[in-house]
Specification:
Blueprint lengths: L1 H4 L3 H17 L8 E8 L2 E8 L5 E7 L8 H12 L4 E2 H11 L6 H13 L3 E6 L2 E6 L3 H16 L4 H12 L3 H12 L3
Antiparallel strand pairs: 1-2, 2-3, 4-6, 5-6
Helix pairs in contact: 3-5
């Protein structure tokens, strides 16, 4: 068990190289109030933190846990967080969800979804005064790609063509939609 807790020499070299590279890239760090870069190497999660003009430093080295699936309600919460340009408090998340998705969720409901997303390693929460702020650890693009790959595996028997054919049969695509799909596939060459 101990060998999983100690990074290999190769991982340590990569961590030092990434830290040096990030220091060069973010030379003008004073204009940022908060920045975070999370890197997964092997079974480890490395968070590089930039706070209010301080230099970047490695905050933690924790084993990365494979992510569980999000429920539909947790996906709605994550979508609101992904769409925001700033960090969000629970009050901001509640108001956006209720407005955007026509929900009437209370603070306890959203708090439950947020804590589940934190446990599943999709979010991180940080205390700011008397409240918490939520930061995504997974981008919407990463999540979307993973979900599409699962659809191809589960519903297309691992073949994208099978999934597209099945989708085309059930949706009854218009001629214009078929041409758009053909154009996309031709553009992949």
């Amino acid at each position: 068990m101990l060998e999983y807790l100690i990074p290999t020499t190769f991982q340590t070299i990569i961590i030092l190289a990434v830290t040096a590279l990030l220091s060069v890239i973010l030379v003008d760090y004073r204009k940022y109030t908060y920045g975070k870069i999370t890197i997964f190497i092997g079974n480890y999660k490395y968070n590089y933190i930039l706070r209010e003009g301080r230099r970047m430093h490695m905050e933690q080295n924790t084993p990365f846990i494979t992510q569980e699936e999000l429920t539909d309600c947790e996906v709605l919460v994550m979508k609101v967080i992904w769409q925001s340009d700033t960090v969000m408090s629970i009050q901001e998340i509640i108001s956006r969800i209720n407005l955007q998705y026509k929900k009437d969720w209370k603070i306890q409901t959203v708090s439950t979804f947020l804590s589940r997303a934190v446990k599943k390693v999709y979010l991180e929460m940080k205390r700011r005064g008397r409240s918490f702020e939520y930061y995504p650890l997974v981008t919407e693009e990463q999540y979307g790609k993973r979900e599409i790959a699962k659809c191809v595996e589960n519903w297309g028997d691992g073949k994208l063509g099978n999934l597209i054919a099945s989708f085309a049969e059930t949706k009854h695509l218009s001629a214009q939609e078929k041409e758009e799909i053909k154009g996309l596939l031709d553009g992949m060459d």
